[in-house]
Design goal:
The chain is 78% helix and 0% strand. By secondary structure, it is mainly α. It has one domain. The protein starts with a helix and ends with a helix.
């Protein structure tokens, strides 16, 4: 009965387009009322869910990403990529994806990547012959790489739930993220092979060097973060704080594009974004607590295990189907808290590495950022390109299929995710 109340109310609220955090909170409160439990347990659950040390990385990574975005690093990265590949036919598609991968290593957020890059790259792609909806769909899909390429807030959350090393999760996401970028480039070339696209003038060696110098400080940020983590200099949480301080130094003293007035606005924006994420973390943790306490997670895990019949390949097909459908209606943070307690025990019983499962889950949720009806990246991109949601959703399907193809490769070839983390041992 509790499961019915919990999931039915949650589904109804989702269909009514209620914000996801409110959906999780209201459905959880209804379930607690059905169980005749006192609400005085809520402060303890909320405090326990949000007071984990690793979660401190979230506000710092958000702050660091916003600082670097305000510093104008997105434009410098685009200029650098254009200088090297802009003269190739379809080169701006490579620029779009390559810069999304680089900026992902700064922001750690899909929507932030789309917003920062889209306002520059979409008009540039349209100018050389791409249709606005195609350009917007590409940057929306490429923006999803922001939660796969480290540092990733989604990996921080998965690590806080499962206890898997966040440093290893960061390392595990590098190759899958780059492969997804390659898949998007290939899909774009296939879609535009018969199109008349203009080529940018080939940059000289001096222009390339100048573009590199302009972007150097931005390129150095992910190197400092990841090098510090993997070199044992600091933890992922400490790395997030270092990223914020470094970003402020670059924005104020190197690029000189951030004033103290800008910094105030950045802090307010970052605090607002952090509050949204942490509210979802707290309510999703309550939802997951009820699932676990009532034995719903165990029952669901046993059901999945019986459904797969002990067959790992079939189980992974089911996992990807569930996660892709979940990504269509709920955000990644909520999906991780709700589904990890169900999927992880089955994966472990079947001998599937929890590290790889984390990568597979995050990749699915990255694809969910561009699948209707939620598709948060699509909404950001269609606003920047001034195209309808219907048009951008239709143009996004080839890129979604390319992403799913890469997802399946990563799912069934665990070595792609395990290779770099194995170097840390």
């Amino acid at each position: 009965m509790t499961a019915t109340v919990l999931f039915l109310s949650f589904t109804m609220l989702i269909l009514l387009n209620v914000p996801i955090g409110v959906c999780l909170a209201c459905s959880s409160l209804l379930a607690l009322a059905q169980l005749n439990m006192k609400f005085d347990i809520l402060p303890n659950i909320f405090f326990a869910s949000s007071s984990k040390f690793v979660l401190l990385a979230i506000p710092f990574f958000i702050l660091g990403g916003n600082i670097m975005e305000k510093a104008g690093i997105s434009g410098k990265l685009i200029n650098l990529a254009q200088a090297f590949v802009g003269h190739i036919k379809g080169g701006l598609a490579i620029v779009c994806v390559a810069v999304a991968c680089f900026f992902a290593a700064i922001s750690g957020s899909g929507p932030a990547t789309v917003a920062a890059l889209g306002m520059i790259i979409i008009p540039a792609m349209v100018e050389v012959g791409y249709k606005p909806a195609t350009a917007a769909a590409l940057i929306a899909t490429a923006g999803g790489i922001g939660v796969i390429i480290p540092p990733s807030i989604s990996f921080v959350i998965y690590g806080s739930i499962t206890g898997v090393s966040i440093g290893k999760l960061f390392m595990a996401g590098v190759i899958p993220g780059l492969l997804m970028g390659l898949g998007l480039v290939i899909a774009t070339f296939l879609l535009t092979r018969n199109s008349e696209l203009q080529r940018l003038p080939k940059a000289s060696s001096k222009e390339r060097w100048n573009a590199f110098k302009d972007a150097f400080w931005g390129l150095l940020m992910p190197a400092i973060i990841l090098g510090g983590i993997y070199g044992g200099v600091f933890t992922p949480t400490e790395a997030a704080a270092v990223a914020a301080v470094y970003g402020l130094f670059v924005g104020v003293f190197v690029y000189k594009s951030i004033t103290w007035r800008h910094f105030y606005d950045i802090v307010v924006t970052s605090a607002s974004q952090t509050a949204v994420v942490m509210f979802i973390v707290a309510t999703a943790n309550l939802f997951a607590w009820i699932i676990t306490m009532e034995g719903i997670a165990t029952a669901a895990s046993n059901f999945l295990l019986n459904l797969a019949g002990g067959n790992l390949i079939l189980f992974l097909i089911i996992v990807n189907a569930i996660l892709l459908m979940a990504g269509c209606v709920i955000d990644g943070t909520s999906a991780l808290y709700i589904l990890t307690p169900i999927l992880l025990p089955v994966a472990q019983k079947l001998g599937y590495d929890p590290l790889v499962l984390g990568v597979v889950m995050v990749m699915n949720l990255a694809i969910g950022m561009v699948t209707p009806p939620v598709g948060v990246n699509l909404y950001v991109a269609c606003g920047l390109a001034d195209v309808s949601f219907k048009d951008i959703a239709r143009k996004a399907w080839p890129f979604i299929l390319a992403s799913v193809a890469v997802l399946l490769i990563v799912t069934y070839v665990p070595a792609l995710s395990q290779f770099l983390p194995s170097l840390m041992q």
